[in-house]
Amino acid sequence: MRLPVYLYGHPVLREKSVDITPDYPELKELVANMFTTMYESDGVGLAAPQIGRNDKIIVIDADPVKETFPECEGRKFTLINPKLTVLDGEKVSRDEGCLSLPGLSEKVTRVEHILLEWDDENFEHHQEEMSGFLARIVQHEMDHLDGKLYIDHVSPIRKQLIRSKLNNIVEGRTRCDYPAKYAPRRRRK
Fold first, then answer.
1. Is 141 a catalytic residue?
2. Whether 150 contacts 109, CB under 8 Å
3. Spatial contact of 87 and 113, defined as CB atoms under 8 Å apart
4. Can you tell me the distance from the alpha carbon of 62 to that of 64, in angstroms, rounded to the nearest whole number?
5. Residue 39 burial (CB < 10 Å; 0-12/13-18/19+)?
6. What is d(CA 131, CA 113) in angstroms, rounded to the nearest whole number?
7. CA 116 to CA 84: how far, in whole Å?
8. If DSSP codes are grouped into helix, strand and coil, which group holds residue 26?
């Protein structure tokens, strides 16, 4: 089932996520719905806060970008309670977009090499070093679990330049091609 994607300005996107346990209700159904939502929204990753849940759950299928980024080929997985460690390596600046920020993309500088630990949807533990664009996708989605968005990594001047676009999302004046949940309307005084 396709779920609505929560958009910039919704408070759920700024909350820290919490670990889940093996007795989490209907986890496999939720993960399947997250993949459906991600695919039907043309994304390569989706974190639980983007569907209104502050649980440490991420789905990724990086295979669609394999032509440009070979390290992404066949990389489809579910991350439960992930932990990221930054490893040595250069930082690279690339354009990033986000389903929660429709119509926007900005250059974001991130490290190129990480160590990731996570449980899968069966709560089997995994650990892997990741590099390149795959590491970027993971870092982007991990930010969501910490209540951060990629625009938090851009300069204050650049953020000021896109302020009207951000306000349009908050005010519900931006449309996207997938079901979305806009920020609650604020009462004007």
1. yes
2. no
3. yes
4. 6
5. middle
6. 4
7. 5
8. coil
| Radius of gyration for the chain, computed over Cα atoms and rounded to the nearest angstrom | 16
Report the greatest alpha carbon distance in the chain: 53
**Residue 65 CB partners (closer than 8 Å, separation 6+):** 44, 72, 133
- Contact assessment for residue 100 and residue 37, using Cβ atoms and an 8 Å cutoff: no
Report residue 158 CA to chain centroid gap: 21
Residues 119, 123, 127, CA angle at the centre, nearest 5°? 30
Residue 31: CB atoms within 10 Å: 18
Q: Where are the beta strands (DSSP E) in 75-160?
A: 76-86, 91-96, 106-111, 113-119, 125-131
pLDDT, tens digit, for every residue of 27-51?
999 999 999 999 999 999 999 999 9
Token reading at 150: 């990629």
**Vertex 45 angle, CA 132 and 131, to 5°:** 15
pLDDT tens per residue, range 89-142: 789 999 999 999 999 999 999 999 999 999 999 999 999 999 999 999 999 999
Q: Which of 96, 106, 112, 141 is catalytic?
A: 141
